[in-house]
Each structure stands twice: as structure tokens, then as C-alpha cells.
Amino acid sequence: MKLTGKVVLITGGTGSLGKVLTRRILANELGKPEKIIIFSRDEAKQHEMRLEYRNRRVATDEIIYDNFDQIVEYRIGDVRDFHSVASAVKDADIVFNTAALKQVPSCEYFPFEAVLTNIVGPQNIVRAIRENGYKVNTVVGISTDKACKPVNVMGMTKAIQERVFITANLRIPQTRFICVRYGNVLASRGSVIPLFHSQILAGGPVTVTTELMTRFLLSLDEAVDTIFAALHGAKKGETYIPRAPAAKVTALAKALIGDRPIKTVLTGIRPGEKVDEILVSDEESHRTVKRGKYYVIKPILPELAGKSNEPRALQKEFSSNDTLMDMSELQKLLNKKRLHVDDANGLEGELLR
Fold first, then answer.
1. What is the largest CA-CA distance in the chain?
2. How is 174-218 classified by DSSP, letter by letter?
3. According to CATH, what is the number of the domain 7-347?
4. For 205-248, how does the pLDDT look when each residue is reduced to its tens digit (9 = 90+)?
């Protein structure tokens, strides 16, 4: 699906994913949009984002933002508030819902706050389209591996977000509601790599919850690749899953520490955390197919699933403990993403914003 001439709305657009998604759209990978609306509740982050792009037109060596001021519009609002959501959705052709409360311990201590952002927010998008008859073509819900067989509030609320969007296809047939689900994003705000970087640069120790913990790993650009793949190929109610690599968190810490004399300290699992993450459950595996580099979960509702000739791609759940990278593979991945620590220059590489 091309974005040429489309109005794109990114809720939570000043977050780590929202900013990279904006950069990729502005690179005209899917055509030149008419407008990108950055919708978020943090005026400071919007101001920083605005200044960043105005003062630095070239975000990478090959991308120049033409007519940035005319293309991007910033709107203060909160996905929790129906009226501000309705105002933002009104002119949109494509909606990317990246707004979320995503820190597992924070959601455990403030569960209803997670409900308001991660469930009521998506429902406000659906309600705005349905009640006002807005001509939105596609809504993409951004989910997480924690939504699969959830044991924490963050995952539970994200799982319900998926169902809110999938079910909306029945009530709003003119709009396509689809989802993407992926694991830990390397160097996103609040993730483990920036924490490890700062601990290493401070001389340690590096804190790891447990020796057994494993996680899927992908970059923000690979997360956006998944979003673009779903935008292009997903049918109503489908969920796209990247076939992402995984590693032990202790191995990740060791790879970043290198030969520095820095200790690793085990701190214990935090509230709501799993040892292993799952991207596709046993129950979902029987309706999971493969498309290119991605697994695709067919919708649970029979009215949307229909009949398919695509063969089943999985015989069991897709867990982060299934295919762990060894140290050489992990180091190669980190070097490819330029996510290593340089003693002389502080943080080197693109700590993706």
C-alpha cells in the first residue's frame, strides 16, 4: 500500500518507534504523503522533535526532508480522551497507534493507567471512526510479544488492544484494522541496551535479572519494516510477526561488556516479567502462516478468517528460547546495528531514538 497523497496519523508519535516511523515515511519509501500528524500528550517531546528536524534537515547521509514544515503537523492530545482522538482521526487515511504504556513494572503498579492508554485509547480510535463515519482506510495496532499468553498487565492490556482492533473489522467494514506484534526493540527508550550502556560507562556493575532470561531482539528499523509489511500485505484482522532472532540477556550483557573488567550482578525477576517471551502461542500456531520474512496470525473470528490455501507455518509456539544466538552471532548482530560501547567516545552508534 502506498502513502502517496495520504494523511498519516501517528499516535504517540514522539516515542522511539513513532520518531523512526516518521523518519522512514518522510524518506518517501512508500511514496510522499500529503501530511503526517504527530499526536501525543507531551509538548516538550514535540518541541524537541520539531527542533531536531528543523535544525538538522539531513537525518541520514541519504535522506533529505523536503518541505518538512508543510508535511508534518504536531497536535497535543491524549489517546485516553475521545474528543482529542476524534479531532486527530478526522482527516486521516492511515492511523498507526504507537501510543502505549509499555514498561512492565510501571504497569504492574498502576494497572488501570495501562488500561486507559492501552485499551481505552484504541477503543477511542475505533469509536471515533464508527460514530463519525470517518473514511479511514487502515488502522495499524502496535502490539508486543508480552500480549501472547500474558502474565503481566502490560501484556494483558496489549492483548485486549489486539482484540479491540480485530473485532472492529466487523463493525466498520470500510476500514481495515490490522496488527503487528514483535519483541524487544534494541536501544528504544527504556529498553535494556541503553541501561547496559550507561552502567558500563559508569564502570559497572551491569545488572541482569536472571541467568535464564531470553529475549527476541530487533532494531527499530526492523520494527518499522514489519509495520510496512503489514500495511502492504495484511488482510483484515491479521497480525504480522517478524521471525526475529533471540538471545540470553546475560549473553547480551557479556557482548556489550567485552574485555572490560566489569562485573555482572543478578537482581532477580521484576514484577510481571517472564523468563522467556513468546511471539506466537500454541493456540495461535494452527492459524499461523508464513509470508516472506514474517509469520502471519489469521484472525480468531471465523467471520474474518475465511478459507485459506496457505499452509500452516508452525507446529508449536514461537518462543525466544527456541533458537538462541551464540556469542559470535550476537556480536555480529550488535556490530551490524552499531550498538556497542566505545570507551573514548562514550556511546557510539545509533542509540535509536
1. 62
2. TSEEEEEEE-EETT-TTSHHHHHHHHHHTT-PEEES-TT-EEEEE
3. 3.40.50.720
4. 999 989 999 999 888 899 999 999 999 999 999 999 999 999 99
195 pLDDT tier (thresholds 50, 70, 90): confident
> For residue 118, what is the DSSP state?
I
Q: Where are the domains of the chain?
A: 7-347
**Residue 346: strand pairing partners:** 342
- Model's pTM, two decimal places? 0.89
Q: What is the pLDDT of residue 341?
A: 45
CA distance 284 to 31: 34
Q: Point out the catalytic residue in the list 146, 248, 274, 298.
A: 146
Please state, in angstroms and rounded to a whole number, the distance separating the CA atoms of residues 177 and 313. Answer: 23
Nearest to 292 by CA among 247, 233, 224: 233
Determine the pLDDT at residue 345: 35
Are the CB atoms for 315 and 290 separated by under 8 Å?
no
Residue 146 is among the residues annotated as catalytic for this protein = yes
